[in-house]
Amino acid sequence: DIPKIEGGHAAIYNTPNYQRFRKFLVRVVQRKWMVAGAVVVSFVIAVMGMGVVKKQFFPTSDRPEVLVEVQMPYGSSIEQTSAATEKVEAWLA
């Protein structure tokens, strides 16, 4: 819970956390080109790092396996579901 601060709305700006945050923001704004450069350098490093990461959407598998999800209307019988899955199996075979 956030403690209530006595002194009304203006008293919020006299809290230690706000003062530290304000000092940080002032420094960032004063050094905006340095901060922008750091962001660009970080982005370039991240893009270069992407080349190191192995690009593989699905891992290789030795098993010839396909997962299929069959959705049936609510209340469908097991016989209807079995018939639908048999049609899918026949189509895939």
Quick description:
This protein is mainly alpha-helical and 93 residues long. The protein contains three helices and no strands. It is 53% helix and 0% strand.
Q: What's the assembly state of these chains?
A: single chain
**Mean pLDDT metric:** 90
Number of domains: 1
Distance separating the two termini:
61 Å
| Sheet having the most strands | none
Give the SSE order as H and E letters: HHH
- The helix/strand class is mainly alpha
Radius of gyration: 30 Å
Low-confidence stretches: none
Q: What's the β-strand tally?
A: 0
What gross morphology would you assign? elongated
Q: What is the tally of helical segments?
A: 3
**Approximately how much beta-strand content do the residues carry?**
under 5%
Q: What percent of residues adopt helix (DSSP H or I)?
A: 40-55%
Summarize the structure in words:
This protein has helices spanning 16-30, 32-50, 78-92. The protein has 93 residues and is an all-alpha fold. It has one domain. Helices cover 53% and strands 0% of the residues. 0% of the residues are buried.
Topology of this structure?
Layout: H1 16-30, H2 32-50, H3 78-92
Overview features:
93 residues, elongated
